[in-house]
Amino acid sequence: MSRPSSAAESLTDEIRIDHESAIHVAASAARRCAQRCGLPGAMPDQAAVLASELASNQVKHATDGTVYVQPALQGDGVEITAVDRGPGIRDLDRSMADGYTTTGSLGAGLGAVRRIATEFTIRTQPGSGTLVSARLSAPGGQPKARYGVGSVCLPAHGEKHCGDACTVADTGDALTGLVVDGLGHGAAAAEAARSALRAFRTAPDRPLAEILTSLHRSLRHTRGAATGVVRVHPDHAEYCGTGNIRATVLSNGEVAHRMAGQPGIVGWNVPTPRPRTVPLARGAAIVLHSDGIESRWSHSPPTFLLRLPPPLLAAALAHGYRRVRDDATVLTVQAA
Fold first, then answer.
1. Name one Pfam family in it (predicted).
2. What's 51-105 look like in SS3?
């Protein structure tokens, strides 16, 4: 049975941690997001604690820090991700202990985040920075997913609407994902993106060429969009796209495949869809992104970046390679 994400149209809140006041902003964003996701009881306050602790660590220890807050793309709950270009953590095990501090504070930080979060992931590289993902889900939620997923979806600076969108759906033994980039910016681009999401949700388990044809029909009365659809199996992935959505396969610490969509505009002029199939080694990940993320990231990326798990990889690409004058979306998928 196909199950599209319930968080399909949710954008990512981006909070730049450049002053102590940003700690409160991050906490408030996490609380609001948890409330929108329907987390019960004290869980919205717990989400605020997670964001506050991660932001506070960046204020104390890091530079160029950002906290991303959004509904989890799979299942229910809120996902909070922190990325910085600080000095990194030299003794990670020690830093994870409650009460440890290098600044004279209470030192609850990372230990508290790990204890409160339903899922917790951290990677650090001395001299380069630290990435942390904390997910908070309601008790008795869905079982652990077979595929790891990460995403970031950001409007261009100064825009209230985002013309980009992404979603995923469990489709049998595979996970199928969509990234869409409505032409231009603003409300009209956002409507094109929403139309694509609605069409995708009707039957995300169809062959990829049929999905793309359905998207084309649904966008005929909009300004059009670029779209990329990926279906990830344990041992291979299929990709079919039109326009500027790029797909990159990462395997064994290197870029294994790069794929671009066929020329055209979904809703206006689309060539006959031609899905491409590529093998996936164990642990391989696939990245889809709109042109709001600079494609140069895949030309000579550091090994540290290539080995990040999906939530951290999506945040790292948005943090390091985003074009702020354009809507930007990253979707990452990895077989568990």
1. SpoIIE
2. HHHHHHHHHHHCCCEEEEEEECCCCCCEEEEEECCCCCCCCHHHHCCCCCCCCCC
Which two tokens mark 270?
A: 């689309």
Domains and CATH numbers, the chain: 3-136 (3.30.565.10), 147-335 (3.60.40.10)
Residues 6+ apart with CB under 8 A from 68: 12, 13, 14, 15, 79, 80, 81, 82, 83, 152, 315, 318
Tens of pLDDT, residue by residue over 135-167, are 999 887 666 678 999 999 999 998 989 999 999
Q: What is the pLDDT of residue 336?
A: 66
What three-state secondary structure class fits 223?
Answer: coil
Which residue is it, tokens 């380069």?
128
| 310 vs 251: CA distance, rounded Å | 13
Q: Which residues pair with 288 in a beta bridge?
A: 247, 331
3-state secondary structure (DSSP) of residue 6? coil
β-bridge mates for residue 157, sequence order: none
When pLDDT is averaged across residues 117-136 and rounded to a whole number, the result is 93
Q: Of the candidates 288, 278, 199, 293, which has an alpha carbon nearest to the alpha carbon of residue 241?
A: 288
- Cα dist. 181→4, 219, 227, 246, 320 in Å? 19, 12, 6, 11, 20
In the chain, the amino acid numbered 130 is: T
